[in-house]
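tool_call: predict_structure(chain=1)
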Amino acid sequence: MRIGICDGDEQELEHLLALLREYQLSRGTSFDCRSFHNSTDFLCDMKGGEYDLVLLDAHMPGISGIQAAQELREADKNVRIIFIASSPEFAMESYSVGAYYYLLKPADAGMLFPLLDKAAGEVFVQEEQGIVLKNRGGVVRIGFAEVEYVEVINKTVSFHLADGAIREVTAALADFEERFLSRPEFFKTHRSYLVNLNYIQSININGIMTKNGHSIPVSRQRRIQVQDAYMRFMHQAETVIMTQDVPPTVSSERPKRPRGPWRILLVDDEPAERTFWADILRCHGCMVQLAGNGRDALKLAESEPYDCVLLDVMIPGEDGFAICEKIRKVVQAPVVFLSCLTESDKQLKGFAAGGIDYITKDTPAALFWAKVETRIKLAMSDRTQIRYGPLLMDLTGHKLTMNGKELPLTAAEFDILWQMSEHADHVFTLEEIFAMAWGSQLWDGGQMVQMQMSRLRRKLEKAWAGHHFIETVWGQGYRFVPINN
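tool_result:
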């Protein structure tokens, strides 16, 4: 990870550098870091694309941190900017330039380290799953899964994305071939074309037709190779999914989809967001269809079967809540909201619209997948209840009963208990439990989790003392202990 720091307070700058050194030691990692005492030096040195993360003093003499961020954002749309300020005065203004976070001085490890962990994780995924392009318009990062095909004409390489966008750079195709062809989904069909096999609709004597209606030429020498590569790729995808442990029980009333990878419709108007979440899903063997607005999502939902729909709230045209109600009329798959809006009233509105879950975009990748996987498996098995002896969880009503008597739980308590019960062999750390219930808040060191788990255990033990459903694993976290039914 590449980090830039700009702070007008020399003592604070030294303090931040010391924190970064401490972070590297604690995580056993290293990264490039450059520091500046004022915005002028920082901007003069900046070309765009140098940094993955910038720590920026919001208020500095001369060019303020907000003004510097505006120029930085014009040169690099992907860089993460964390403002560090002595007061919340510029907090609202900071988010107008796409702030990653806003910290108050003095920064400390408890506040800064979780943000560095999150940023490092995102950078790692992006580096593994995409490339960075630099052109006159600035710097843009695109994911491999987002690329439908690559074309070179003269000295311009064009990246045609699945959402219809085209990114162009002045270069040679050879500059990108090695990275693309090292991935199983890409194949060179012609000296001027690379194609993502995921987007092939048909192959014939005239070439390839993609799912988005683009015609790609295939050289005469490569026709048989392209067909063989495509068949191998599809066979490997089917083999991977058939080895997964998917519950075989499907309700006879539910129309069965042909056996194969889970098909997921991901609706989000932000290309970077679509790429990030789609890459996680594809890494787990899913086939992902992308839509940038509600109209396109409805067309796809009506034309193809899906196992799950992931739906952003803030999309062009009708918002996600309105689209959810319409999608629920044409598909039986669970609809899960995936949004940056973390307010409880928005989440309640999502459930009222027919969503089966509401995942905020600050949720860690592992927890995001666990929730999606659970929802799909639950929908495929038609299971609405989980029982462990006298304990019965009603998954549709979010209610828990003990020996037939309802046990009042908060939404966070129910979700924690449910997720832990689904993975009874796993010891959940404090950080994992915190992400389940308070993913949108800043990590507090574990105090909220310990209080929450203490209250939940007391409720369960008071309702039935015959078994301890939650066990403390000292030095590690908590584990759900099932009981034979």
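agent: Residues 237-260 have pLDDT under 50 and may be disordered. Proceeding to next step.
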